[in-house]
Amino acid sequence: MEPESFSLIVATIRREILTGSYQPGAALPPEPDLAARFGVSRSTINRAFGLLRSEGLIDPQQGRGTTVTYRPPIIRHAISRQYRSAREADNSHGAFDAELRRLGLTPRSEVTVDRGIAPAETTLAGQQVVTRRRRMFADEHPVQLATSYIPVAVALAAKVDQVDTGLGGIYSRMADAGYGPARFAEIIIVRTPEDAEARFLRLDPDQRVYVVTRTAYSATGDVVEVNVMIMPVHRWALSYEWQAG
Amino acid sequence: MEPESFSLIVATIRREILTGSYQPGAALPPEPDLAARFGVSRSTINRAFGLLRSEGLIDPQQGRGTTVTYRPPIIRHAISRQYRSAREADNSHGAFDAELRRLGLTPRSEVTVDRGIAPAETTLAGQQVVTRRRRMFADEHPVQLATSYIPVAVALAAKVDQVDTGLGGIYSRMADAGYGPARFAEIIIVRTPEDAEARFLRLDPDQRVYVVTRTAYSATGDVVEVNVMIMPVHRWALSYEWQAG
DNA sequence: GAGTGGTCTAGACCACAGA
DNA sequence: CTGTGGTCTAGACCACTCG
In chain A, what are the domains? Predict the structure, then answer.
């Protein structure tokens, strides 16, 4: 009918979710019912569901119906998490573990380690590196993919070419070995997920991920690690704090 | 045909744009032609164009055809930009001006000032504030909306209840008045644009914006400003740097 | 089997730009 | 006027879930 019916329908349903008319976990009416309610075809409702799903608000499933899945985002404190005390809190093996435990979520990570050449888009492009890949879960939902590239010399000295890096994670081991990072830089972009990312994070092609690329520098200015983190934007908020200079 | 034709088509066209088969500014074939090339209906091509447009890669226009519009993102250096020297570089009136000039872009801002009550989602919720709204352009393209909330007492002392705040912007005036911010916190989320944001930034309902909320604290721990910035994700990259603690 | 959402088609009508 | 993209429809067929 009206050319703006799509936007109106999306706005209406979104408001009903965010104001609590539909509670998280509740079932939404079937697409044909909503089509009748709004006086449009099922195609239009299906398209509206597509956008709401891409925002992480709903989860339509074939055969099972559509449920509300809104979850408040996980807050990632980028700077304080680099403090050794934060990484080692609660006997955690790194900042991710410590952070999720504080939020009442159960963290789990799968780590694989191998050697290779750092990819072109990193500060270590072309160098021989030890690559640590982490697949991270919160309450068994996949929430982050992180790939860490460490120059071979640094990795061997800090003994981080193995899966378990002990209390506090790799930065604690680097510090123990005299390669403690002195300066960090993070760059954030947002894009659609690549195929492998979408498969692991269970994302659709029209959803969005943060790509956070952190480069860690030693006191002498050498790059001791580049870490590329992929996170669905609807699951995470990013937080930074600093003193005025 | 195949159920995955949509993703394949999107991936194919995206690759042709990013590898340079279609240069920025070039015209893409009309939707009916691409429908024939891929052996699908125009609806499917139209949907693929919708996703590529939402990524900021192409700009389809009624009557005029579809052109490639990929632009590298503007890098926003969140921390160094708070240094007074950076804000006042090149005779600029704040960090935004200085940053865009360095990138060879022409900045322009429209500012309006009024009084009101700070909205609920800010640290100043409910307080009487001076509200400064900025609409920012790069080469006359809208790129950012920023709304700054300043407690009335601070705003009057720093004389930032007027449109022009002089060399270095409001933080320089606050420092002059003894309200210089001592600590900053920024929280980043990503969501779809609200109607007013979409209108100004010329965004579609399925595109995404960063919402960067910066809170500035005085040396005594009081909030002297909350600034909510809205930026299309495909136009901006966010950068943070800090020393290990 | 009945009902769900996933995907695609063919076609309609529209607004708009440009020759 | 022709051709462009914007939007929506009606319907098809499918994969899937659940009683």
Answer: 5-68 (1.10.10.10), 74-239 (3.40.1410.10)
